Amino acid sequence: MEEKYKVGELIYDGSIYDGMNTEIADLPFYSHWLKKEKKGKILELCCGTGRLTIPLAQEGCDIIGVDNNTSMLKQAEEKANRLDLPIKFIKSDIRTLDLPEVYDIIFIPFNSIHHLYTNQDFFNVLTRVKKHLKKNGYFIFDCFNPNIHYIVDSEKEEKVIAEYTTKDGRNVVIKQTMIYENKTQINRIKWHFYINGKFDSTQSLDMRLFFPKELDTYLSINGFKITHKFGGFKEEVFEDKSEKQIFVCKQINDFYSGETMFS
């Protein structure tokens, strides 16, 4: 089996990303929780093009955005500048993040942890979060609740998952195929891009799946208490058929030493 993990460059093209990701159903949820610290300092990890960062700043949040992709950050900065919002955006790998300040709330939205492909990647991020989180601060993130039936059905055929026009005038159609690896828990997704009526390229979108009990355990052994776990952004109770896993956590201790526990 392939052991390398990747996301294609076109998927992280700022304009392509923004054209596809216009949904902000998660904004009211994050706004509600971030406002629990009315004068708090907020750190958003994997902020992308500022899909949430910018409207949250417009609501008055003192927020900093971190991402490791230059195209995404450029798009975010341009949008913030057009709105005259003095948001600080930082380029960094969240596994090695090292900032001089600590924050009242740190959050990772929009399923971004699925791009942490190994347990050690995830543990490294949790270590970085603890380093940058104030005592009694909140750590919040969301991800998918793996749906094996959906994966099996999706492996059978190519499906159109998006059709839109970007702000820079590209007509985009994306068709999807996928194959799930049991060994690595990686869903090997392929997005086949057709731009302006012609096939452009096939881009990889590898996503590590995290199962519910697995995540509960990983958070616990890394010193986080799950104060709430929701199944949707309307704060639905998490249950078997929930589409999402949404965690609200607080740091409680340092059980995990930083050494590899699970590969």
List the keywords.
alpha/beta; seven-stranded mixed sheet; Rossmann fold; about 260 residues; 11 strands; four-stranded antiparallel sheet; 2 domains
Question: Summary?
Answer:
This protein has helices spanning 14-20, 27-34, 53-58, 70-82, 119-132, 148-154, 212-221; strands at 41-45, 62-67, 88-91, 103-108, 133-144, 159-165, 171-181, 186-195, 198-208, 224-230, 244-251. It is an alpha/beta fold. The protein has two domains: 14-145 and 211-251, Rossmann fold; 148-208.
Task: Characterise the protein shown here.
This protein has helices at residues 14-20, 27-34, 53-58, 70-82, 119-132, 148-154, 212-221, and strands spanning 41-45, 62-67, 88-91, 103-108, 133-144, 159-165, 171-181, 186-195, 198-208, 224-230, 244-251. It starts with 13 loop residues before the first helix and ends in a 12-residue tail after the last strand. It is built from 7 helices and 11 strands. The strands form 2 sheets. A 7-stranded mixed β-sheet has the order 3-2-1-4-5-11-10, with helices on both faces. The chain has a 4-stranded antiparallel β-sheet with strand order 6-7-8-9. The radius of gyration is 18 Å and the shape is globular. It is of the alpha/beta class. It folds into 2 domains: 14-145 and 211-251, 3-Layer(aba) Sandwich (Rossmann fold), CATH 3.40.50.150; 148-208.
Spans with pLDDT under 50 lasting ≥5 residues?
255-263
What is the strand content?
25-35%
Note the main sheet.
7 strands, mixed
What is the β-strand count? 11
| Order of strands in the sheet with most strands | 3-2-1-4-5-11-10
N- to C-terminal distance: 16 Å
The CATH topology assignment of the largest domain is: Rossmann fold
CATH class call of the largest domain: Alpha Beta
- Give the second-level CATH assignment, the architecture of the largest domain: 3-Layer(aba) Sandwich
- CATH H level of the largest domain: which superfamily? Vaccinia Virus protein VP39
Mean pLDDT: 93
